[in-house]
Amino acid sequence: MTSKDDAQNTEEPSETIVVQTNEGAKDGQNKCPKCGGTCIALNINSAVLRCNFCRHEFEPVRAVGLDTDLSQLEGKIVGSGAMNIAVDSEDILTLKCSSCGAEVVIDTNESVQARCHWCRNTLSINQQVSNGSIPDMVLPFGVTKDDARKEIEKFVEKRTFFALPAFKEEFCTENVMGVYLPYMIVGINSQASFSGQGERLIRRYTVTTGSGKNQRTTTYYDADLYNVERNFDLVIDGLPIASSSKKLDHPSDRTNNIINAIKPFDSENCVRWDANYLKGFASEKRDTNIEDLKCSLEVKAKDIARYNVNEAIKEYDRGVKWVKEELDIKGQQWKSAYLPIWLYSYQQTKKSGSSLLHYVAVNARTQKVMGSVPINVPKLLLFSFVVQILGMIMALFTMLYVLYDSDYAVVGLVFALAGFAYYYYYYKKYRNTGARFEHETDTKATMSNVQKVDMLVRRLTRLRNSEMSGANNLVVNYKPGSVKKQMK
Predict the structure, then answer these.
(1) pLDDT tens digit string along 281-328?
(2) Would you call 82 exposed, middle or buried from its count of C-beta atoms within 10 A (0-12, 13-18, 19+)?
(3) In a 3-state reduction of DSSP, which class is residue 334?
(4) What is the DSSP code (8-state) at residue 49?
(5) Does the pLDDT value for residue 107 go beyond 80?
(6) Burial zone of 400 (CB within 10 Å; 0-12 exposed, 13-18 middle, 19+ buried)
(7) Which run of H or of E encompasses 221?
(8) How far is CA 214 from the centre of its chain?
(9) Which residues contact 441 (CB under 8 A, 6 or more apart)?
(10) Residue 253 vs residues 174, 258, 349: alpha-carbon distances, Å
């Protein structure tokens, strides 16, 4: 085989501990221990490898070396497959077939396997290459193509009325592809410190002023204002961060957010990297380094901490306004992984000549589905206009009752905005532009050793807002695209 840089030769900071996850891995033929065949592929129904000749199934080999107790984690631990990508690394490798001696060329940009053109044996790349094409571990497909097609078809069937006519004519799930996408799986041991102010509701009451036509009813709130501090330990386990630069942003010519919205994955069931898991599927190699994703990790981790601490401030039912938020990451662990999805894509060509690439994706472990369907905008605008006209008529009739009861003013306003609400609802349902992975709640996290400080400041009376002004305990700061901007 031609020479290639080993993963351990890629430079990393001196304080980083690198765990060799590919120890003992060999390139070339992976033979079935029962019959010696090299035609080995994934059996999706059982999520294990199977010999296609004798049907023998292999017990999955768990990824080892990175199963540290995260609560005791200190420093920075990195799997060898997650180390920095070497700019001068080779993408095209030559393997020598051990059966017939022929030399077989493999372009790792396209595949990690190839058949010998003489003896037809399968050759695989299992040693880590420093170009990002070989991760530490892989999560096998667990959902069949037929099941994925059914989920995609059900998703689209609910969105056909306002769908673009060309899309409805051309929609066919035969072209659904199984794809392994690159992610970093991150574990964190941290200590958090939050301080600010919170409000506890004391009473809610209404005050009526005026009489007759000028009578008005106002709702007021009384609350106690406290200085609040919470200090705690936080362990975050299995936070997935996309390690393909194309998935870090929401460009105008595609709907990338759809792909990240089908997380989370059960990454705890990842197995050691074996090229045979990729047979029959496409894959995309990693093109970002840990430093490129550091900003994303820090912001997401603080979001997770902010949401977890809500368990310790339930008494502040009007909200908490955090003034200081600190998260000290004492230990972090980075693992590169391939995670599986089923992907349907459709390119919409607009009259202006531009195009928009739509995706419908299915999590190949949980069957969670999310997608974007091209909209027949003129049709949606027409129906929205009709709804708006009807809404305005209803609003006029409703507003007549305002002369007798001010509560009807709100109803009239709702009718007056009916067309806009109709358009917004269906546009959101079809395009799902706001769909995302809710990392703040869907990531496994454990909070412990909580220390509380609560000091009464004063009582607030006759407040008009039902929630605390400026409360930010439910704020999510991570915005897609922030990592892309940092990389630029």
Answers:
(1) 888 888 899 999 999 999 999 999 999 999 999 999 999 999 999 999
(2) buried
(3) strand
(4) E
(5) no
(6) exposed
(7) strand 216-242
(8) 53
(9) 307
(10) 23, 13, 10
State the amino acid at position 28 in one-letter form. G
pLDDT tens-digit readout, 340-379: 999 999 999 888 778 899 999 999 999 999 999 999 999 9
Radius of gyration of the chain (CA): 28
Q: Rounded distance, CA 288 to CA 245, Å?
A: 6
> Residue 404 pLDDT > 50, yes or no?
no
Phi then psi dihedrals of residue 383, to 5 deg: -65, -35
> What spatial distance separates the first Cα and last Cα of the chain, rounded to whole Å?
37
Segment holding 439, helix H or strand E: helix 439-442
Residue 24 contacts residue 64 (beta carbons within 8 Å): no
- Each domain of the chain, given as residue ranges in start order, spans 7-201+221-372+432-487, 379-425
The secondary element (H helix, E strand) that includes residue 391 is helix 377-400
Half-sphere exposure of 94 (CA within 13 A, CB side): 6
- Whether residue 465 contacts residue 201, with contact meaning beta carbons closer than 8 Å, is answered with no
Say which range, 167-181, 186-200, 211-225, 370-384, has the weakest mean pLDDT: 211-225
Q: At what angle do helices 408-416 and 418-431 cross, to 10 degrees?
A: 60
